[in-house]
From TrEMBL:
InterPro entries: NUB1, UBA, UBA-like_sf, Ubiquitin-like_dom. It comes from Triticum aestivum (Wheat). Residues 500-530 are annotated as: Disordered. This is Ubiquitin-like domain-containing protein. PROSITE patterns: UBA, UBIQUITIN_2. Residues 35-84 form the Ubiquitin-like domain. Residues 302-342, 374-414 form the UBA domain. Residues 507-521 have a biased composition (Acidic residues). One of its GO terms (molecular function) is polyubiquitin modification-dependent protein binding.
Length: 582
């Protein structure tokens, strides 16, 4: 009896719609529960169990499309007794429609990822160029081929250059995966970022000509003959750029690289592409000259297995050995020297990375300036070398927006110095031992935790005000903020802050201390813009720091292409000779 009532109830709640066309008949559906994919599947089943992708549905003059949000038929506008036209595509057409839909979805996903890439590169380059207190335990810096950090132009130039290089590196990773179309889009974004730099600065380096070469290489691998004209212009820019940065016939590059031929693979690719462009433009003599030169250089990069075996027997990695041999013209001693240099660079880099992580952790202890910057460690070092305690000098720099002169005025003013120490004492909730204090202060713990609790941040002082009043106001503002923040601290957080102050000389690697610092860092950035952490990490993890990686190109594809186009030239010459003789 209960079963009959349920059936009657279900029947009463169903609506009837009429389907005409490829399949005709009446269907009982629940307009509020059924979706377009459900209706399509049912029509496909009744039409002879065909694939649902082959079924098209039209209602009220518009095509009913599958909505990812699961919109019901009622929300799509269908009512009881509605008439729906059904169409049935051929099997091939159905597959084509499905392929088009998949391609559109993939294109949309790719476009969204490009936007994320640009935003992530922009955010990373901004944070790592403007002195911000970093969220991550690394610092993105610019280095020359010897591994030395370099500075280029203004802060805006540095930001644009870092952004361009990160995007270029991402494109190189895609090229190695044979994802040329995706790489081309990222290369165009890198080119846009390079355009924001001062031309006089970037013409000293070979990154821009490398970018032009990579763009044309993607054209070639995609067999995009329609871009021949622009490809020729880009190759001209690349050759001119290499000449400016490497010198005529690479003389400057050889000098910097101790007479090594690290750039040989670049010129194999460049001359191959120049030959291809000349071939399609009908300039066979130029094409033959460029391709022959490329072939000669290509043969110089074919390393004998015996030479690799000699180096691997010495304990060197096979891949690194092959790279060293290619760049030194198979000279064993020069290859060993290069491998030793690279090993020493890795050791120095590892030491620098450890020092960078330690410095970032230390900066987090001191907190952010009123303008959300990190304490300048070089200026802090300058103050500590003349006798000021590190934690006190760091706080003076922090509240004075890293102005070393104002910080020095504050520290040398007995009254203001005393007020600053009182502020730090109140924050720590313990007596302050001025003499013998450890190098890393815990002064930032209370303000950071309080900011997370929702208290108003300290007022940003007027740095242009009269100097004496300004310094006093700075300390008063900070002291008032510290008192408010101390009241907002929960007991357990306050206890941790005190424990950190007592153990401020403890090693930076202590697990409990690191957890506290990470917690405070997270709280201090709670009000900042939302980060795309996954994309930022993807970009950062692809930065190798290997200066020779850009020149270490596998030229196997180039070798095949050189042979192919030389063969085409020979065939064309033979055909022309046969026509002339006849």
């Amino acid at each position: 009896m209960a079963s009959g009532e349920a059936s009657a109830s279900a029947s009463a709640s169903a609506d009837r719609i009429r389907v005409v066309g490829a399949w005709a008949g009446a269907l009982e559906v629940e307009l509020g529960a059924w979706t377009v994919p459900m209706l399509r599947a049912e029509v496909a089943r009744r039409a002879g169990d065909v694939e649902p992708d082959r079924v098209g549905l039209i209602f009220g003059g518009r095509v009913l499309k599958d909505d990812p949000a699961g919109v019901s038929l009622q929300q799509a506008g269908l009512k009881s007794n509605a008439k729906v036209l059904s169409t049935l595509a051929s099997p091939d057409r159905g597959k084509a429609l499905a392929a088009e839909a998949a391609a559109a979805a993939a294109e949309e996903e790719h476009s969204n990822k490009l936007v994320r890439l640009w935003d992530a590169a922009q955010a990373l380059s901004q944070r790592h160029s403007d002195g911000s207190l970093l969220d991550e335990n690394f610092n993105i810096a610019l280095e020359d081929q010897s591994g030395q950090k370099v500075m280029f132009g203004s802060a805006d130039d540095m930001k644009a250059l870092k952004m361009a290089l990160m995007l270029h590196q991402k494109a190189k990773v895609l090229i190695k995966k044979n994802m040329y179309k995706e790489a081309l889009d990222v290369l165009m974004m890198s080119e846009e970022a390079f355009s924001l730099c001062d031309n006089k600065l970037i013409e000293r380096v070979d990154n821009v000509p490398m970018l032009q070469l990579d763009i044309v290489w993607c054209y070639f691998m995609l067999r995009d003959v329609s871009r021949l004209e622009v490809a020729g212009a880009r190759l001209n820019k690349a050759r001119l750029g290499f000449e400016l940065s490497h010198g005529k016939d690479s003389t400057r590059f050889r000098l910097l690289q101790a007479a090594r031929h690290a750039d040989l693979a670049l010129y194999v690719r460049l001359e191959l592409l120049e030959g291809v462009v000349a071939y399609y433009n009908g300039n066979t003599e130029k094409a033959r000259g460029s391709l022959s030169s490329a072939q000669s250089k290509y043969m110089q990069l074919q390393v004998p297995d015996e030479a690799i075996a000699m180096l691997t027997d010495m304990g060197y990695d096979a891949r690194a050995s092959k790279r060293a041999l290619k760049m030194t013209g198979y000279d064993i001693q020069s290859s060993v020297d290069l491998l030793c240099e690279e090993r020493e660079k890795k050791i120095r880099r590892r030491e620098q990375d450890i020092e960078t992580q330690r410095e970032i952790m230390e900066q987090r202890r001191y907190g952010k300036t009123p303008m959300n910057k990190a304490v300048d460690m070089q200026k802090l070092k300058g103050l500590t070398t003349i006798g000021f305690e590190k934690y006190l000098a760091a706080e003076a720099l922090r509240i004075n927006e890293n102005d070393a002169e104002k910080a020095l005025d504050l520290l040398t003013n007995p009254e203001l110095n005393c007020a600053l120490q009182s502020k730090i004492q109140s924050r720590r909730k313990r007596p302050l031992h001025v003499l013998g204090a450890g190098p890393l202060g815990a002064g930032a713990a209370a303000p950071v935790a309080a900011a997370a609790a929702g208290n108003a941040p300290p007022q940003i002082p007027d740095l242009n005000a009269a100097e004496g009043d300004n310094q006093e106001q700075l300390v008063n503002n900070e002291e008032e903020a510290a008192n408010n923040e101390a009241e907002a601290l929960p007991n357990d957080t306050e206890a941790m802050a005190n424990e950190e102050a007592v153990n401020q000389d403890q090693d930076m690697g202590d697990e409990e201390e690191e957890e506290l610092i990470e917690e405070e860092a997270g709280a201090s950035h709670a009000q900042g813009p939302v980060r795309d952490v996954a994309m930022e990490n993807e970009l950062a993890n692809e930065l190798t720091g290997d200066a020779l990686d850009d020149y270490d190109i596998d030229v196997a594809n180039e070798g095949h292409a050189i042979a192919e186009y030389l063969s085409l030239l020979e065939s064309a010459a033979a055909a022309a000779a046969a026509a002339a003789s006849s």
